[in-house]
Amino acid sequence: AQTVTQSQPEMSVQEAETVTLSCTYDTSENNYYLFWYKQPPSRQMILVIRQEAYKQQNATENRFSVNFQKAAKSFSLKISDSQLGDTAMYFCAFMKHEGYGGATNKLIFGTGTLLAVQP
Amino acid sequence: EPEVTQTPSHQVTQMGQEVILRCVPISNHLYFYWYRQILGQKVEFLVSFYNNEISEKSEIFDDQFSVERPDGSNFTLKIRSTKLEDSAMYFCASRDTGDYGYTFGSGTRLTVV
What we know:
The complex is a heterodimer. Chain A is mainly beta. Chain A is 0% helix and 50% strand. In chain A, strands 2, 5, 6, 10, 11 and 12 form a six-stranded mixed beta sheet that branches. In chain A, strands 3-9-8-7 form a four-stranded antiparallel beta sheet, with no helix packed on it. In chain A, β5 and β6 form a beta hairpin. Chain A is globular. The termini of chain A are far apart. Chain B is mostly beta strands. Chain B has strands at 5-7, 10-13, 19-24, 31-37, 43-50, 53-57, 65-68, 75-79, 88-95, 103-104, 108-112. In chain B, the strands form two sheets. In chain B, strands 2, 4, 5, 6, 9, 10 and 11 form a seven-stranded mixed beta sheet that branches. Chain B has a four-stranded antiparallel beta sheet with strand order 1-3-8-7, with no helix packed on it.
């Protein structure tokens, strides 16, 4: 079974600075996807960034980037130029690749990191 | 941008009562999901639904739970006899073929009293 671990329950960063959130996972699968989801106080789950395990290049989305270390099973999220609107719970999630026709492709979530951006 | 819509946003129910949580997935999506988040805990998979049938369900999804896609647009989660421990945020999600990124709804907060 796959597991996802986020070892930082809470973090704080000053506005405009950079912060890195950690995530490790355990799997025997070779083909999978990794995600970071943001959950602001509104409680909606918003996809921040995704990474395909077969791609060596780290994914980036504007101020958000990941450091994907497949051998170490590590998937950290870096937020640059932090903004007040980045304050949220951040969840790391794993999805086993079942193929495009796979009927499940369920997400397995970590316990989350609560990020507070201070003015 | 297409959205997944969930109603109601908050529901309070008496223990033992039946509740139906409603979701309207994105119209051309084929895969549908329900997840649950007990306050302060992680998000947990409940069930996946494809081609008008359950494709996988978790241990949480026991006989008290059922899902249905009654009319081709709505996707519902029914809890037959609610327990106090069913109090949680319930998220509906959908995705398209070939896209592994889910779109989540904004959730229904269920409070069982």
